[in-house]
Amino acid sequence: MLFLGFFLCVSPIFTRALDNGLALTPPMGWLSWERFTCNIDCDNDPKNCISEQLYMDMADRLVADGYKELGYEYVNIDDCWMERKRDSSNRLVPDHKRFPNGIKALADYVHSKGLKLGIYQDVGTNTCAGYPGSQGFYDIDASTFAEWEIDMLKVDGCYADPKDMDDMYPKYSIAVNKTSRPILFSCEWPLYQQQTGIKPNYKEIAKYCNIWRNDHDIDDSWSNVLDVIDYYAANQDELAAVAGPGHWNDPDMILAGNFGLSYEEAKAQLMLWSIFASPLLMSNDLRNIEKQFSDLLKNKEIIAVNQDPLGKMGKRIKKINNVEIWVRPISPVVGSKYSFAVVAFNRNTLGGPQNVSVQLSSIGLDSASCYIIYDSATPEKKTKLCPKDNIVIKVNPSGATMTIAKLNKNFFFKH
Ligand code: GLA
Fold first, then answer.
1. Model pTM score
2. Domain with 323 in it
3. Atom 1 (ligand 1) nearest CA
4. CA angle 18, 22, 24 (to 5 degrees)
5. Exposure winner among 55, 74, 256, 362, fewest CB in 10 A?
6. Phi, psi (rounded to 5 degrees) for 67
7. Whose CA is closest to atom 12 on ligand 1?
């Protein structure tokens, strides 16, 4: 037994990068930052401050309102959960007033609901909001998180030199892996590097991180979301090459149900994040959300595209009258041919709904055995189309429409 313990401690399995088997599809859940930021004023704003109650409330809603059964399983703490100082053994301490029962008790609560708990730290000396960072304490913090039974760790990059991140992030990831608790490792490594003109080495990043933020922080505005989409389009070949089961690009949180996006804009964000094969981490107030937004977040067809097991990221492949056509290969695959999810994204802000006509073969849908086609809003209405056929997609301004084109082994088109 002793010998086995020794073997496990020194075995290279436990020092290898990211051998955690997690995130085989992009993680789904809820993250506090965009909606609740660093609100620590529990005296005046008890329902919205960063506290154990907030995360328990969201866990309750994820289960009671049917999000969990659709795959939303992580409840994630972001910045501002700590005391300003480590304890005498250099361990992190949750804020006594706002997390009176400690993080382990919160994890127990979240686990009792069949959900998972995420937490936030920083690879540098401080978190972005100025709380103690993990630099110099990677092993201690990793074992603290493992003891608390944390399931996901977001590691920010404030108060660190982006030049050193190629060394720092792997060290932290290895420290977490050494605990032998599977903890999904979320990085901001490429974001800080590309912001300072360093070209991220995505092959390396994908070895150590399950998900990684590429671009700037999202906020509750359409212009910000458009920027992120443009970043993804501009870098799509590089980003698609590195996405896959266990390692995903993260364009930041889903905003549906907040204040800044219209329904159409929120729908476009969710559909494009599904084309990107990206995490769906909502940051909204699930206790207070309009039905059309919660219905959108629970759309099974959009979620199925996001969670497609092949894990291939889609790309923007053409523009017709300022309507972008984004295409993602999905399952089932028949022979050498893929099925596809197609998102028409209308960048126009003038005028009403637009009809775009697209010949299937012109966007790569070229299987001679043809496709079963349906819209994510009305999956029960199915048609059959072949490569030379045109599909007419209706799409609202600043909105998107998702069309799914599936191959079917048992379906043979008869001329
Ligand atoms: C950075 C991150 C955000 C959030 C804040 C917290 O800006 O990119 O996602 O975690 O820090 O301070």
1. 0.95
2. 315-414
3. 128
4. 115
5. 362
6. -75, -40
7. 128
